[in-house]
């Protein structure tokens, strides 16, 4: 696993009114919860399906976050963190939620500054030390200065099954690009991210998909479409579509990570495209039915969902 480690903090409360002295609303915070997200939740999703996981990421080594990691990670997840300096702070995405409606009112993020000039050398060295003993590499690039074009170019040359997700978000909307990664076995992206990549709002989705497959030499491209489900594209194959299994989600945070996790495992095992997308869609459905990344997909949970769906 390669990517940013993110901690998702949810603060539940309610707006109690307008400030008496200044023109802003006052939020009363009642409870708070924090979950391991980012590349960490992907590791949690697949931990019950594989023997060993190595997570390569940056970490600020904060004591309270270290405790949360130890509680969240199973024994087969090994941390291979890069500690750059003492002032580095781990990524925390704090969201303020109305506890009655679960509506997100606003967010406050702790994000890292641009990495040092030679940081990619440390990262590549760490990847080299682990990739030889791995048969699957999953990369989740959230655009927070962890993976630059040099690291992406190195990853693209790795001769191991590679699955990649690069996400568009509020902090990287002006710099986000999928172009850094080539020769990837599986890429999972949202339709809006693909359209942003091509600066095209109107062209039929399948034409953009096949253009991206050709341009970046992608073997499997999964495009998620929210309530409209997801579609898997492959060169010279008819697209496979799967509907979403939930009509209304509680929280969409982490849905793409869940899809990436299950689809990467399924494709690596050479399962049929229909089954690949079915499993990925189930994983996403499980994820969006809870707030944040509180619940991770495991083998027994997936098995129960499958039995219920097929009855």
In brief, what are we looking at here?
This protein has a single domain (2-310), classed as 3-Layer(aba) Sandwich (UDP-N-acetylmuramoyl-L-alanine:D-glutamate ligase).
Structural write-up:
The protein has helices at 39-46, 63-72, 119-131, 149-156, 191-198, 205-216, 255-268, 273-288, 299-310, and strands at 2-3, 5-18, 25-38, 53-58, 77-82, 91-98, 104-110, 137-141, 162-166, 186-190, 220-224, 230-233, 240-242. The protein has 311 residues and is an alpha/beta fold. The protein has a single domain, classed as UDP-N-acetylmuramoyl-L-alanine:D-glutamate ligase (3-Layer(aba) Sandwich). The strands form three sheets. Strands 1-8-9-10-11-12-13 form a seven-stranded mixed beta sheet, sandwiched between helices. The relative contact order is 0.13. The model has no long low-confidence stretch (mean pLDDT 91).
Q: Unreliable stretches, pLDDT < 50, 5 or more residues?
A: none
Q: Estimate the global geometry from the Cα principal axes.
A: globular
Q: Which radius of gyration do the C-alpha atoms yield? A: 19 Å
**What is the N-to-C succession of helices and strands?**
EEEHEHEEEHEHEEHHEEEHHH
Percent helix, as a range, is 25-40%
Please identify the structural class as seen in this structure.
Answer: alpha/beta
Superfamily (CATH H level) name: Ribokinase
Helix count? Answer: 9
**Biggest β-sheet description:** 7 strands, mixed
β-sheet strand percentage = 25-35%
- Walk across the major sheet and give the strand order: 1-8-9-10-11-12-13
């Amino acid at each position: 696993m390669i990517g940013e480690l993110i901690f998702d903090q949810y603060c539940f409360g309610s707006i109690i009114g307008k400030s008496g002295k200044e023109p802003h609303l006052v939020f009363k915070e009642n409870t708070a919860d924090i979950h391991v997200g980012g590349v960490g939740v992907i590791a949690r999703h697949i931990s019950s399906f594989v023997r060993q996981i190595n997570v390569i990421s940056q970490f600020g080594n904060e004591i309270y976050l270290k405790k949360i990691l130890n509680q969240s990670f199973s024994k087969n997840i090994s941390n291979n963190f890069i500690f750059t300096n003492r002032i580095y702070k781990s990524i925390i995405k704090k969201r303020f939620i109305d506890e009655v409606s679960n509506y997100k009112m606003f967010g406050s993020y702790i994000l890292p500054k641009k990495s040092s000039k030679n940081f990619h050398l440390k990262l590549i060295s760490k990847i080299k030390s682990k990739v030889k003993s791995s048969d699957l590499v999953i990369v989740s690039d959230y655009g927070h200065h962890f993976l630059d074009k040099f690291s992406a170019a190195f990853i693209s040359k790795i001769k191991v099954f590679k699955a990649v997700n690069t996400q568009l978000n509020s902090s990287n909307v002006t710099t986000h690009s999928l172009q850094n990664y080539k020769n990837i076995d599986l890429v999972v992206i949202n339709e809006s991210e693909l359209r942003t990549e091509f600066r095209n709002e109107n062209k039929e989705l399948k034409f953009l998909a096949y253009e991206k497959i050709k341009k970046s030499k992608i073997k499997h491209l999964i495009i998620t479409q929210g309530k409209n489900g997801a579609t898997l594209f492959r060169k010279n194959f008819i697209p496979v579509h799967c509907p979403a299994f939930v009509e209304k989600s509680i929280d969409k945070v982490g849905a793409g990570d869940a899809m990436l996790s299950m689809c990467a495992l399924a494709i690596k095992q050479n399962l049929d495209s229909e089954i690949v997308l079915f499993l990925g869609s189930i994983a996403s459905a499980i994820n969006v039915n809870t707030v944040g990344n509180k619940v991770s997909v495991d083998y027994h949970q997936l098995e129960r969902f499958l039995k219920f769906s097929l009855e």
